[in-house]
Design goal:
Elements: E1 2-11, E2 17-26, E3 32-39, E4 53-56, E5 62-70, E6 76-84, E7 88-89
């Protein structure tokens, strides 16, 4: 399975930088699901400065977890985390977001 991985640079309260990885998964019915991506320690994680990038992983090496929480307005929401235990770099990322424009 190939996914496009995006990195968001963040900072802890103590001022230490870290990265959060994000992707969009497409279900078989065509609906899309945004998810945070976390890598198990033995898999290592990509370098945030190489993102956006495509990565490959076997579905057996991935697990999608769902978390339900209540936001500040009292609404119940869902958040998804894709856990990956083994991966490798995929095809080079090509940005096609402006292909439909002149």
């Amino acid at each position: 399975m190939q996914i496009t991985l995006f990195a968001r640079k963040r900072t802890t309260k103590e001022g230490k930088p870290f990265a959060t990885f994000l992707t969009t998964l497409t279900r078989k019915d065509g609906t899309q699901l945004n998810a945070q991506v976390k890598f198990k320690e033995e898999a290592g994680q990509p370098k945030p400065e190489k993102c956006p990038m495509n990565i490959l992983f076997d579905k057996a090496d991935g697990n999608l977890a769902k978390r339900t929480y209540t936001d500040s307005m009292g609404d119940e929401k869902e958040a998804f985390t894709l856990w990956i235990s083994a991966w490798k770099e995929g095809e080079p990322y090509v940005d096609k977001s402006l292909d439909d424009f002149e």
